[in-house]
Amino acid sequence: MLIVQVQSDGRVEVLARAKEMVRLGETSLRTGVIPPEVFRRGLEALASLRRIVDRYRPDALVAIATSAVREAQNGGEFVRAARDEIGIDIQVIRGQEEGRLIYLGARGTLNLDGRRVALLDLGGGSLEVILADARECYFIDSLKLGVIRLSEEWAASDPPSARELASLRARIRQSLAPVIGRITAMGFDFVALSSGTASALAALNSALAGSGNGGAGGGGGSGRGDRGDRGDRGDGIPTVLTQEALIELEQRLGRMTLEERTRLPGLDARRADTILPGAMVLRAALELAGATEATIADGAVREGIVADYIATHRPGILMAEEFPDLRRRSVMALARRCQFDEAHAQQVARLALSLFDQTRALHGLPESDGELLEFSALLHDTGMYISPDKHHQHSQYLIETNEMAGFSREEVEIIALTARYHRKAEPPSEKERKSAPRRHERFCALSRTARERVRYLTAFLRVADALDRTHSRLVRAIRCQVHRKTIDLRIEVDGDPELELWATRRKGDLLESISGLRLRLSVDSVAEPRHAVPGMKPGSEPDGLVSKVSMLAEHLPKPNGRAPKSPPRPRGVVRRLPGRRVADA
């Protein structure tokens, strides 16, 4: 496991590393089934790693599984158990994809300036053979030569006999020869090794040489500098492993019992049964490639996952600095992908939140619902990206199908439905719910409490959206007072708000319905008219022009209790009288 902090400029800071040697391929690579005890051990290891991850609260969690899960008959059951019990979604990848990630992880640790590398990654179930340079991969193949697989299939005596060693050596060379021959024909400049087995062999060779027990050297000695240095990596593991060292290690390990290998200095005892097959595979690879040494790469598949995530999520990473909060970042990422009208969305969100805050005594909703209302307002017009026609329904679809990180499923539904009902049909009342058309089924499936929340949030959003009907951001501020029979909404504007008032009377019906109160609007103009009268100098307008006026919304007629279906036409100029003027329809 690798936990990193990615800066906006792409720099990566490692926060934590952890490893659990579960060995899911133990017996399963041979039998095709992960045994129950190994299955459970794997889940326990994931749970342990998840506890570490949760301390850092990362924005993203990426988990992959390779050959052990890919080839097991019950691999799908393991993936489902990891998701249901631990909350980790595992992506099972093929050998080609594994090779690509290994390349991405190793690329940043190798000197590939104008050179090609033959990169060998020896894992438990497979050996990935990669030919690449700094720009791209030219060849990737995955061979069933993993150290756990070989150890399981080999089943040699302890210690192995010369005949058993020869048999395994022949099998390895037979599998390797065609692939190594192909990359040799394509050409490469040096060989590099990645992952645990190669590092373990390099560390073992260095420990044996340091203890005077016959190590072959090659842990950082002569040869080309393919990493830019010749010492160790800083963790005690040498940067180079020679063919000579591999030959001597193979011979020495082949004479030892399993118990003797567990006591070797510098070797994790859990690798004692697989280290010999590992030495044999890497020795054969170097011999077939005609290489006298190999560079040990720091990075492999874990680092490759990070590199791949950075490459594919660059816009989101840049947004992390602008929006540190994960939930807000998820909302803004979706909004910007849909090319939303940000000025209008921000205006509607501001007005909706102001309504929410000033009517707390009426609705009694928690502060967290105000945040959901704001997010609904920011996303209410995202459906325009698909089509202006029925865009409220498209907004619902986009929100529900987007990966809204940081939100619960119910919160996503509330945001989506609030955005969906910002225009056209209103959410059904409790009396209408049972007979509601099918298009309201997602709303009707919510709990009663959640439905009530959606109704109130929708009512505020509809009013706020109407108050920016022309997308001109005329409304500077609103002041709302809840009385026994009315909700009085006073609006401060910068211009003529006639369309906004007309739209608010139409879309305020839901708020009146759920509150049982009458919505009354009044307007305070706080600025001179934006458009001069033709032929007049600024400041010379006649006394009849509107300057500062307060007018009740009743100047907009509502025949039969309903708002008119089309915007009203101006009836003339309201004359300014001393003090406050009320314009009656």
Descriptive notes:
The protein has 585 residues and is of the alpha/beta class. It is 45% helix and 13% strand. The protein has helices at 28-31, 36-56, 67-71, 75-86, 95-107, 147-154, 162-186, 196-210, 243-254, 258-262, 275-289, 301-312, 314-322, 326-337, 342-358, 360-363, 367-379, 391-401, 409-420, 441-444, 448-466, 498-507, 509-515, and strands at residues 2-6, 12-17, 63-65, 90-92, 117-122, 127-132, 137-143, 190-194, 240-242, 293-296, 475-482, 486-493, 518-525, 550-552. The strands form four sheets. It has a six-stranded mixed beta sheet with strand order 7-6-5-8-10-9, with helices on both faces. Strands 11-12-13-14 form a four-stranded mixed beta sheet. α21 (448-466) packs antiparallel against α23 (509-515). The longest helix is centred in the N-terminal third of the chain and has 25 residues, at 162-186. Residues 218-225, 227-231, 528-561 and 569-585 have low confidence and may be disordered.
What would the keywords be for this entry?
single chain; 585 residues; alpha/beta; 6-stranded mixed sheet; 4-stranded mixed sheet; 23 helices; 45% helix; elongated
Taken from the alpha-carbon principal axes, the silhouette is elongated
Give unreliable regions as ranges. 218-225, 227-231, 528-561, 569-585
Distance between the termini: 71 Å
> What is the residue-mean pLDDT, rounded to a whole number?
85
Largest sheet: 6 strands, mixed
Helix proportion: 40-55%
How many helices?
23
